[in-house]
Amino acid sequence: MKSNKIFIFWCALFGLIVLITVFANLFSTYPVNEMNMDKVYMAPGDGHILGTDHLGRDVFTRLLHGGKVTLTVAFGSVLLSLVIGVMYGSVSGYVGGWVDSAMMRLLEALISIPSLIFVLAFQAVMQGGMWGMTFIIGVTGWFTTARIVRSEFIRLKEADYVKMARMFGTPIWRIITGHLLRNSVTPLFVVTIFNLAGAVFIEVSLSFLGIGIPPSIPSWGNMLYNAQNDLLIGAWWIGLFPGLLIFFTVLSINFIGEMLKDSRL
Amino acid sequence: MLKIEHVAKRYGRGRQRKGVLEDINLSIGKGDLVGLVGESGSGKSTLARLIMRLETMDEGEISFSRSGNFYDSCQIVFQNATAALNPTWTVRASLLEPLRLMKGDREGYIKEMLSLVSLSDVHLDRLPSELSGGERQRVNLLRSILVKPELLICDEIVSSLDRLIQKEIVELLKRLNEEMGMAILFISHDLKVVNYLCDRVYVMKDGRIVEDSVKQDGTFVFSHPYAQRLFE
Amino acid sequence: MTVKWIGKRMMLGILVLFILSFLSFFIMHASPGSSATAYYGGNAQMLSAAEKERISRTFALDRPLVVQYGAWLMETVQGNLGMSAKEGRPVSAILAERVTNTLLLVGVSLFFIVTGSILLGMEAGMKPNSLLDRGLSSFSIASSSIPAFWLGILFIYLFSLKLGLLPSSGMQSIGGNDDFFDKVRHLIMPAAVIVLTHVGVYARFLQDSVKMEMRSYYVKTARANGVEEREIRSGVLRNALIPYLNYLGMTIPSFFGGSVIVETLFSWAGLGQLMAKSVMVKDYPLLMGGIMLTGIIVVVSLFVIDVLMFILDPKLRKRELGV
Ligand SMILES: Nc1ncnc2c1ncn2[C@@H]1O[C@H](COP(=O)(O)OP(=O)(O)O)[C@@H](O)[C@H]1O
Ligand SMILES: [Mg+2]
């Protein structure tokens, strides 16, 4: 009972964050990119509830719009990972035999490589914008998904209802979608939730380093790009608020994932 | 219709290889009611899987005399109805699965057949978890007979049900046999039911068929001591 | 049987290096300009015609892609990683300066993560319902939800700016000469950031295995037979360490990814910072070299974990050796 309430709390918090960023236009108090050189580095207070940055832009407004970018990248890339991971895992798990062994060896090797290495390599030659970033995080983030799909398939394909389906002549794609994937939804959902947290991390970290989303697009990571220097001159609010929002977003995602995982076991 | 000759099946590899079936001979004619009894682990389910071509045998031959798609004329009902139904599919979806290629009013046909297993339209939109054990097994059975097979293999389908529902299902099988001329291979370790339902019975022990007997005057007569003990 | 096991693990290592070599070669090819430019960077224009001809021959630039890959791989294996596009020095020389710094940072962090998580995880697992037991999972989730670089920024603000206790970046103070304690002072914050964002997760993992062990039959029998608590502890730890090491092996590569961010934030002159910088300034040969070297480090560390597992896990040893 108690854990149910906690679960709803985290879902509500995450939902709230998603909502205010989706409807950023409604809540924002200034145009996103409006600069005001007379009002640079204003501390939180009248007019600018979370202050302004080094170009006099409203931190609160950029926080909402930045969230839209960061979360779009995260959701988009996770979706891409899901598609790739499901396809790879399905083939490996369904076909089995030496195809499965070979694909698993490859996957094991891919998992052993730090995913940030892949991201850096792609980023070096792609120099894409927001969608480029989404693509990069997506194509480098499907490994765990594939592994889980594969192990679920191996477990489920021996189920009696799958044997029956084969005897009824149900087409393979229907067996895969209707029987195998349909019954792997819960673990797939859990791993996708954790991937979402990971995707937010990668976007903000790379943008913070200056090798993520181009600085012209506001994202939570980009807002922190100057935070280190701003902090040195005492403008703590520029780094604090995006960081807190990232923290609470990832925290709620992680708690949701953990609680779903536990309830399944 | 079905003829099994000198079939053997082994599992495992190398030193762990072990024989599960040895020199099995068995035949089923059109419209036969045949029982297959034996203790748990004697290899009954393995034989059923071989007949259904779900696994390959190591020796011998199984011939089935009907041409066309094998699974249109031979079907199986598994023991565990919970495992045999996709937990995320409604009864309707599960029942539609074997009728994928059927032309005409599939829904109407299903509704018509539902009454055969004493289920009704209200069950169609339920999930397996929302059915009782008996209802689940009836859905499972119905799904296998929708294609009107000529041979139906029932692998311990009543073993986990209570007596009342057992009786209902056995009566249904009897009716299917009489009305549609469906041959049935009834696998069970429950001798009472076999005695009641079947006209002929094979007794299995440790992967071998030790005896077969035809019902005379309502009972089976055995000469093998194991079979005698079993049917005492 | 051991031979088979070692062979299987070596296959994995070789596969990892192969994938990374494809990735490197892909970078070289996808990068703007000719392969020679990619390999020799800005200096390519200054090369003489004869030099260019020689390079073209070495790297089989007029041959099919597979041959080019083979030629490039041959050079790479021999340690010829090309010249840095921006610094005009051999990539291998630059990497050599950097690698020890990364190993130092990751090594020290790992040491504290492992010891810290074993202490915390054992304590929490052995004492059900204690404060630590109940709090550890929340701590683990919360600490792994903080972006490392942001925690780093907070640290810099607090410990460098406000309290003036620790240097905010670099590896040694300006004008300082290779002083050991100076380096340690510079190491504290970046290492602390890595440790704090990771230790909870590992501690929680160990806690779960310890709890599972505590419920097992042998602990109950040992307790009933009056075996000393110290012996039970060491037995439980030994068994719980096996899945823990497995988990560590699975996640160890991520430390070398994560060090990219922390090194850059604290200007720690390691491989990670080097790779991030080379992405920014498009120094392709340097990035390629960094990727290959990181791969080698990962493969070696995976091997070390494997050996530790082999020593600890009697079942694995028995199966593989056929004892
Ligand atoms: N896939 C398999 N692999 C190995 N052994 C099996 C397999 N399937 C069944 N067996 C073995 O074959 C024997 C017969 O099993 P089964 O046919 O299920 O018996 P029954 O249905 O009569 O209870 C059992 O000893 C069982 O352990
Ligand atoms: Mg059986």
Structural features, described:
The complex is a heterotrimer of chains A (265), B (232) and C (323). With 265 residues, chain A is mainly α. In chain A, helix 1 crosses helix 3, helix 3 (59-95) packs across helix 10 and helix 10 runs antiparallel to helix 13 (237-264). The model of chain A has no long low-confidence stretch (mean pLDDT 90). The relative contact order of chain A is 0.14. Chain A has helices at 2-22, 24-27, 59-95, 97-112, 115-126, 130-139, 143-156, 160-167, 172-181, 185-209, 220-223, 227-232, 237-264. The radius of gyration of chain B is 18 Å and the shape is globular. The longest helix of chain B is centred in the C-terminal third of the chain and has 18 residues, at 163-180. In chain B, strands 5-6-7-3-8-9 form a six-stranded mixed beta sheet, with helices on both faces. A three-stranded antiparallel beta sheet of chain B has the order 2-1-4, with helices on one face. Helix content of chain C is 77%, strand content 0%. In chain C, helix 11 runs antiparallel to helix 12 (284-312). Classes of the chains: A mainly alpha (265), B alpha/beta (232), C mainly alpha (323). Bound molecules: adenosine-5'-diphosphate and magnesium ion. Adenosine-5'-diphosphate is lined by residues 11-12, 20, 38, 40-46 of chain B.
Topology of helices and strands:
The complex is a heterotrimer of chains A (265), B (232) and C (323).
Chain A: H1 2-22, H2 24-27, H3 59-95, H4 97-112, H5 115-126, H6 130-139, H7 143-156, H8 160-167, H9 172-181, H10 185-209, H11 220-223, H12 227-232, H13 237-264
Helix pairs in contact in A: 1-3, 1-13, 3-4, 3-6, 3-7, 3-10, 4-7, 5-6, 7-10, 8-9, 10-13
Chain B: E1 2-11, E2 18-28, E3 33-38, H1 44-51, E4 59-64, H2 70-73, E5 74-77, H3 81-84, H4 91-96, H5 106-114, H6 133-145, E6 151-155, H7 163-180, E7 183-188, H8 191-197, E8 200-205, E9 208-214, H9 225-230
Parallel strand pairs in B: 3-7, 3-8, 5-6, 6-7
Antiparallel strand pairs in B: 1-2, 1-4, 8-9
Chain C: H1 2-30, H2 35-40, H3 49-58, H4 65-77, H5 91-126, H6 131-143, H7 148-162, H8 180-214, H9 217-224, H10 229-265, H11 271-280, H12 284-312, H13 314-321
Helix pairs in contact in C: 1-12, 5-6, 5-8, 5-10, 5-12, 6-8, 7-8, 7-10, 8-10, 10-11, 10-12, 11-12
The complex binds adenosine-5'-diphosphate and magnesium ion (MG).
The site of adenosine-5'-diphosphate has 11 residues of chain B, from helix 1.
